[in-house]
Amino acid sequence: MKRVLLRGVLSASIMGLAVAPLAVPAGAKPADPNAVATTTPIKHLVVIFQENVSFDHYFGTYPSATNPAGEPAFHAKKDTPTVNGLNAALLQHNPNSSNPQRLDRTQNQTCDQDHDYTHEQTAFDNGLMDKFPETLGATGSQGGTSCASSQVMDYYDGNTVTALWNYAQNFAMSDNSYGTGFGPSSPGAINLISGNTFGATCGKLSDEVYGPVAACPAAPGTATPGSPAAQGAGTVFGDPQPLFDKCDTRGTAAMGGRNAGDLFGGGITWGWFQGGFDNCNAAHTAIGAPAPKKDYIPHHQPFQYYPQTANPQHLAPSSAALIGHDDRANHQYDLTDFWTAANSGNLPAVSYLKAPGYQDGHAGYSGPLDEQAFLVNTINQLQQLDTWKSTAVVIAYDDSDGWYDHQMSPILMQSQTSVDSLTGARKCGSNAAKVPSGPSGPQQARCGYGPRLPLLVISPYARENFVDHTLSDQSSILRFIEDNWSLGRVGNGSADGLAGSLDSMFDFSHRNDGKVLLDPASGQPLE
Description:
This protein is α/β, with parallel strands linked by helices.
């Protein structure tokens, strides 16, 4: 399939989105990211941050799909490169207690697997990668569905995650990208924006925060935001909710130190746009799911952990023209605000998009078909904007959900704490010199890199049908932002100082103006 140049605008009914532009208030001057100097032709970066998928879970057999009758077919181009995936030996004689099995489209709903920081290290078993079912596999039942521990080994192919495979055919993907550390959603989200899960100033010890920190205030969401706090002594390794958020329902944590928001200053427009941010109780039900899931999930919103970038009361922007600017929303928005800005010709320079819960791909309440609809509708619409010619979309994931991946991650950051188990009890390596360090000394409980995750770049400047083998991690996205807008590094122990570059996924000397427009239900090209 070649990128096709289409004229005109797809109808809102096809796109599944409202596309009518909203007027900028009279007298207001929209932001112009094109006027800000960048080191590449990319003036607009859109990071779509999805949930809980390992590389092998979505791309293990790429580019070979089974193509059974009744499912969308996928046929790879003849020149498609292979990936470091599930070869015949891993499929038929896996070192784990069960072999990987293909999941089809009727299995959009699966059980949520164990993806605990410690347990993931145990499953890795010092690099043998052979303890997934007994360590991470879900058992019992979830929402009335019986869970088999062997399911943790299973994978989808191009007949279900069809859109993602088609994007890989036409743009660039990586088969060597990892979570910055082990563990669930909160650490992954925090690593995306700061490259550092160390610095918690308060939180719940034992299963959420490691280190000597005080308990957070009992009334979540009531804390007052303000200037950046100094890094605390705790490391987030579990899933506490962010202290500065009125939608919190349980234990919280707060972070000190810097994140990407501190680097942008007043000259670069940016925002985190999340489904349900304007209504804590809004909920939807995914295809085949047993119950609705709230659209807004607080611990998926990393900027709400930091006092300087939080919007605790979820205040709406003062006007459409101020989306992306400094105002009462403090750069934290509902997902609808993104389209208000984008369709008004005011697309921010840096946008982080978080799908509503039922479309974020998280096993147990979402699935690949709902996720596909969100991804395709979003990317189809972005390609219709005048700004597409200078836009790059990065599709990335917060953690693996515990799903099997055969590739041992390189361990660039070691840790020796009670919650580590990669190379033995209390050990993620044994070299104290390899423990990350910041201004206050060692930063423990940051064992990483963690599991391998999907990473795709979709852009007129992305290499076509390209598989990148460059080592990268979640903080490589932060590094791209820092380098493209010449912002410097977050520092203070951030993994951005180690992160590999995403530049090899681009060809900045050539712009392809074709469009790849897909059907949100099938993932196949629109004719």
